[in-house]
Design brief:
Blueprint: E1 2-6, H1 16-30, E2 34-40, H2 46-53, E3 58-62, H3 70-86, E4 90-93, H4 99-110, E5 114-118, H5 121-124, H6 130-142, E6 146-148, H7 151-159, E7 167-169, H8 184-194, E8 201-205, H9 214-225, E9 232-236, H10 242-251, E10 257-260, H11 268-274, E11 277-280, H12 296-303, E12 308-311, H13 316-319, E13 326-329, H14 334-345, H15 348-365, H16 368-381
Helix pairs in contact: 1-16, 3-4, 4-6, 8-11, 9-10, 9-14, 12-15
Length: 385
């Protein structure tokens, strides 16, 4: 199979979706398929150039443009060139909007079948524009198959008219091995390097975007501190810390909130082992229409036998089984967050049972060794409409 992946984001960019797409390409190349990646990115960025140079497949990057629709037009033109030049016989769109629309328009001329992997927010983001919704609906209905990361995302694509037999839930998976062999001394070394005090620790690993819900967790801390005064909250992720720091000061919990911009991939498993509860209470972003489609971070926490607290918006309920591997709460309610945290920390048997259930669920449902072959089968076997 000669495949073209069209996606707005790709490694070395951070985020679960970027990692999922890189895992998919690595797997397909390893199975003998010819893959070319078409994505955005600065060719002068040293980190990007170093990453691209180490891959055994071609990555074509388009410099993003500020003009309305210009970046998508440039992506479409380059996709046309690659398809003709490399005799591409399958296209995978790494997101729904706008990659599926680009593929739809290009393949109307070249008659190359395309599949789509949807992450949820790449569908909900068009709800404020009838024109975008109509275009995306046409594109998705023309795809050979639409794979979705959650049942929430599956409902969203079917609401746009995608037939049931042409859409399927295919959640992301992780390699569980790096999360299972962490040594206690390495975990404690990370605690010292990050200057994390002893005591209960909450953890969020996510960019500092309002919809990720770090503000709700900060607002929950005063009530939690009544029973666990030595609890700290570690926020790991890039972005502007000013608003969250101001909120922590206003709430009187500045000394309990720790910010870290970034940790290495090798330190990430240690980070989960360092915490007692992983918490990310994602919510809808009313301005952009974005929402958490799944949340691979919950799988990573589960692989480390840590319970999670997730927001009820979007597809997080697929990643966290409520009352089994953690709690799914109202992401706008600091009270529900604090109650969930206190309930877990007050019961060692509950904390341990949720952690073990999370690990078992990841092993049973969410390993990339099981899920990536399914993507390959769907790409090869799906037929054009």
């Amino acid at each position: 199979m000669r495949l073209l992946l069209i996606t707005p984001f790709y490694s070395p960019g951070v985020g679960g979706s970027s990692r999922l797409l890189q895992d998919t390409v690595d797997f397909l190349v390893g199975k003998g398929h010819h893959v070319t990646v078409l994505t955005y990115g600065s060719k002068t960025n040293l980190k990007v150039r170093d990453f691209d140079s180490l891959q055994n497949y071609s990555i074509v990057r388009i410099e993003p443009s500020s003009g309305a629709g210009r970046s998508s037009l440039m992506m479409g033109v380059e996709a046309f060139r690659i398809i003709v030049r490399e005799k591409i016989d399958r296209i995978l769109c790494g997101v729904a909007y706008a990659s599926a629309i680009i593929a739809y328009l290009v393949t109307r001329l070249l008659r190359v079948p395309f599949a789509v992997y949807s992450h949820g927010e790449d569908v909900t983001c068009v709800k404020g524009s009838r024109k975008k919704a109509v275009l995306l609906s046409r594109a998705l209905r023309a795809a050979t198959v639409v794979m979705t990361n959650s049942n929430f995302s599956l409902r969203e694509v079917r609401a746009l008219g995608v037939r049931e037999e042409k859409s399927t839930w295919l959640p992301p998976g992780i390699d569980i091995a790096p999360y299972t062999g962490c040594k206690k001394e390495d975990v404690e070394d990370l605690r010292k390097r990050l200057q994390i005090p002893d005591g209960p620790l909450l953890l969020t690993v996510a960019r500092l975007a309002p919809r990720k819900g770090q503000d709700t967790v900060i607002r929950s801390l005063p009530k939690i501190h009544k029973q666990f005064p030595d609890l700290h909250y570690l926020i790991v992720g890039g972005g502007d810390q000013a608003v969250l720091k101001a909120l922590a000061s206003e709430t009187g919990v500045s000394d309990s909130v720790i910010f870290v911009d970034w940790v290495s991939d090798s330190d990430l498993p240690l980070l989960y082992h360092l915490c007692d509860i992983y918490v990310m209470v994602s919510r809808w972003d009313s301005e952009t229409g974005e929402v958490e489609g799944f949340g691979m971070v919950y799988l990573e926490a589960g692989a480390c036998e840590k319970p999670s607290i997730a927001g009820s918006a979007g597809g997080c309920g697929d990643a966290v089984e409520n009352n089994v591997t953690g709690f799914v709460v109202d992401p706008e309610s600091p009270e529900e967050v604090s109650e969930a945290v206190v309930k877990i920390l007050s019961s060692s048997p509950l904390q341990q049972s949720m952690g073990k259930a999370g690990r078992e669920r990841v092993e049973r449902l969410f390993t990339k060794q099981t899920l990536l072959p399914r993507i390959e089968r769907l790409l090869i076997n799906s037929q054009p409409l």
